[in-house]
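Quick one: structure for this chain?
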Amino acid sequence: MLQRIFFAWAVCWATVVTVVCGTGTVITYLLFPRASAFNFWSKVWGIGMATGVGIRIRASFEVPLETVAPVVFAINHQVALDIPAVGSSIPVPFGWVAKAELARVPFLGHAIRCSPSVFIDRSHPKRSIETMKEAGQRIRNGLSVAIFPEGSRSYGSDLGAFKRGAFLLAIEAQVPVVPVTIVNAHHLFNEKTKMARPGVLEVCFGTPIDLTGYTRKDIPLLVEHVREAMQKHLPTGDNRVP
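Got it. Here's what it folds into:
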């Protein structure tokens, strides 16, 4: 019961922080249309949201990433909290490759539109291809991008099937892929079970995978490398919410 009450509070707090930070993002980006403006508000949004519900985001890095960009951040997806958690932890300017549904979310959708991000509509293959081309151009211009290759939330620690788009994007742009593992977000906030609790949310940034010489034929190999890099941080049989 307490975790359900805490979930209700977390949703209310998240709404307030999203309204404030979404508005701030739009205004700042109109005045200073740079990726760094989006980065600033991503950090404020993620840290503010987590702090208000008693969650501390702890990011760890196998190697420093500040000098590696541009890269493709490939992130596992457990719950909605992943987005602000990762957004506050990525140490370089970046944009999201976000699902088209997010464009309709009040304030959050406006904030993403006023950022170096792109929306992907998987229900329209032609539009999806155009979106990936646009994301590729962002990378070639020196901007990192972040994407959830599973495409949907798992609500647990098990990894779902990875879609090819994120890996094709990295190979076409010939930039490294950084596996990013959300370890335990589903324990702290789970919109499926409507439960939440305070705690430490762990985000692990892996070693960039160099794609020199990779072609489209190597996508299955790259997918396996990324899965292995994520899996080593994830406990097995750990899909419950305490």
